[in-house]
C-alpha cells in the first residue's frame, strides 16, 4: 500500500470516528410536551441571558445543547438529573441560585426541557 493510500485511509477513518461523536439535534420545539414547553418558556425567561440552549458555544455560561447527551457537565461532574437540579436550585460559581424563585414544578419543567436538547 502506498503512502498516499495509507494517508487517505487514515483520513477517512478519522472522519468516520469524528462523525460518531456528533450529538443528535435537539427535539423540535413543535414536538415538546406541555412540561417540556413550560420548561422551554422558563429557560427563555430565566436562563437564556447566560446560556444558549439550541446552539453550541458559550454566552456568559456554557451552552446547554446536549447537556444530558454528554458523559459530564462542563464542570466535569456527572450529567445527572440530581446534579443539574442542584445547580439550578443552589447555583454554582457565577450562576445564581434560582431555588428561591422556582417551585419544584418549574425546576422539573426546566429539567425536562434540558433533556430535549
TrEMBL record:
Domain Cytochrome c: 34-117
Pfam families per UniProt: Cytochrome_CBB3 (PF13442)
Keyword annotations of the record: Electron transport, Heme, Iron, Metal-binding, Signal, Transport
Signal peptide (from-to): 1-18
MF GO annotations: electron transfer activity; heme binding; metal ion binding
Keyword Heme: yes
PROSITE patterns found in the cross-reference section: CYTC, PROKAR_LIPOPROTEIN
Name assigned to this protein: Mono/diheme cytochrome c family protein
Amino acid at each position: 500500500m502506498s503512502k498516499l493510500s495509507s494517508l487517505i485511509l487514515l483520513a477517512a477513518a478519522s472522519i468516520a470516528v469524528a462523525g460518531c461523536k456528533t450529538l443528535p439535534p435537539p427535539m423540535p420545539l413543535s414536538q415538546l410536551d406541555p412540561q417540556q414547553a413550560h420548561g422551554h418558556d422558563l429557560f427563555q425567561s430565566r436562563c437564556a441571558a447566560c446560556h444558549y440552549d439550541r446552539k453550541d458555544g458559550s454566552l456568559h455560561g456554557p451552552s446547554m445543547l446536549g447537556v444530558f447527551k454528554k458523559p459530564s457537565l462542563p464542570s466535569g461532574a456527572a450529567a445527572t438529573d440530581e446534579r443539574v437540579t442542584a445547580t439550578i436550585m443552589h447555583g454554582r460559581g457565577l450562576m445564581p441560585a434560582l431555588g428561591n424563585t422556582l417551585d419544584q414544578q418549574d425546576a422539573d419543567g426546566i429539567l425536562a426541557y434540558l433533556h430535549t436538547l
